Amino acid sequence: MHACTPLPDAPSARPPRAHISPPPRTTLTPILFLWPARAFADYLAEAAHNAGDVLQECTALQNMGTSLVMMSLHVEALRCYEKALGLAPSAQAKGDVLECLVWVHSERGDAGSAIEAVRRLRDLHEEADPPDMEALCSDDLQEGSLFAQVREFGEARKAFESAHAIAKSSMGSHPNRAKWQC
Q: Is the pTM here over 0.85, yes or no?
């Protein structure tokens, strides 16, 4: 029989598909669908660790942390991200992990820790040679937003003004410079 030829209908003990109802949606349904992703990321992290591939282990820990955040397991996600940050072999990898830390702290409603992570990210962008002005501007905007969330409007204003100053100074002769001029 050719591989593409359909098989003849065989009697089945299963009821027809139309009679099978989907599982009820509960608060656990998203966790059940994400759990294999977490298990796979855990497996990849262990395999990368055993192989001595630090970058791959860092990436797998980030992926596992992301799966955990999506399952609302924030404390476990923080552990993954902190471990990934300790392993990050490059400034780019550290920046990626710090962005994840900002996200998980924001998800937890911990603006103070999110601001601290943004400041660590900003320090990383300032240390780049040359400094990444676009990223610095984005860091200031994010920091300003976080300060506004906790109603520290003075600090928020400083951060937004810093972002505006960076944007104005780094635009140079860019055609869109007129948008930034006040």
A: no
| Position with higher pLDDT, 80 vs 11 | 80
Q: Could you give the 3-state DSSP secondary structure of residue 4?
A: coil
Tokens for 137, please give them. Answer: 């501007």
The average pLDDT across 31-41 equals 53
Q: Does the pLDDT at position 89 exceed 90? A: no
**Of the candidates 78, 125, 85, 122, the residue with the CA atom closest to the CA atom of residue 103:** 78
Please list, in sequence order, all residues whose beta carbon lies within 8 angstroms of the beta carbon of residue 15, skipping any fewer than 6 positions away: none
Between 31 and 178, where is the model more confident?
178
Residues 6+ apart with CB under 8 A from 170: 133, 134, 137
In contact, 35 and 41? CB cutoff 8 Å: no
Backbone CA torsion sign across 134, 136, 141, 145:
positive
What is the spatial distance between Cα 114 and Cα 110, in angstroms, rounded to a whole number? Answer: 6
Query: What's the rounded Cα separation, in Å, for the pair 124 and 82?
Result: 16
H or E element in which residue 28 lies? none
